[in-house]
Amino acid sequence: MRKIILLSVLCLALAVGNVYAAQPKPIPGNALPDFTLPAPGSGSERSYLGLSGPFQVSNVKSDLVVIQIFSMYCPYCQKDAPNMNQLFSKIESDAATKGKIKIIGIGAGNSQMEVDTFRKRYNVAFPLLPDQDYKIHDIMGQPRTPFFVVVRTKPGKVVFTKLGAYDSPEEFFNALKAALKEAK
Amino acid sequence: MKKALVIAVLFVLCAATASARSQAFGDDIYSPGDLKPRDSVLKVKVGDMAPDFTLPSVSGGKVTLSDYRGRKNVVLSFVPAAWTPVCSDQWPGYNIIKDVFDSHDAILLGITVDSIPTLFAWTNQMGKLWFPVLSDFCPHGKVSSTLGILRSDCVSERALFVIDKKGIIRYIDVHDINKRPQLESLVKELEKLK
User: Which CATH superfamily is domain A24-183 in?
Assistant: First the structure.
């Protein structure tokens, strides 16, 4: 017990030293913390999400939203990019999921150019948005990347989260289909 | 069991830092905390001829700066230390923009004051890098010191140098050691070389 107290004090000291106050990671069943995302850059991204200006995740036109916290600078996100593209194709080509599950990538600490570089390098077809000052990364509890938060839009509730990439796009797709069924 | 859970939760709390760390490095990243943004005085300036150097490369062999003269523009990316948070994500970013360097007829040389075996293990976590990684380890920090970017704790600054085909320094960014330089600034400087 003593050891735990000692560790707690140490951790607290370290945590206080952090520039950004750590918030807890999103908890399944809880409401998604409030935050506004910048307007998607392209017309196709805007029509995919069904909105025009800055938005909240609950405004997205779909039942579920997959939020992917990534970074252009993260080797695991780079490695996972083809899988995410496959996941997107699977969602779009299945009548049971098309229009009901949408993906948004948020580039932690990435500028617009850095997010665009990632999009171009990996031909990412779903919207990628910059989070240059780590604001959303902070709200999400400063996770390592990639980090996924699956949200039910009505109401804006966290369904599940996942730290690190899935082994395969099939595994992720099946988890999303199961979540979609539960949402009904 | 409960104790283990508490400790696990505490570790997660401890691991939080201001930068988004990749899962790729697992728990192997050491957090140095917030450091003095800059802790050295430059000995070169824009317009100077870049001091020549020869350093060993992680992939074997040696690299000499002046070998690129007349052939390639050179970007030197010094990062302070292997296995630290910001450094561990700077080069993986450069690793996916070889086309940007190519289109500006530029090569990238990554340099730290770490030893070759350390650099080998660390850069292996980043996947295969297209650019040489050089070790300024022996004599310790000699090149960093010549440029005036060796800090008092014997690691280098987080610094970018753009050197043109004539060997002249065209851009220097001794960055806040705690932050990653934005891609925009480097690309803008590469564009100026044309």
Answer: Glutaredoxin (3.40.30.10)
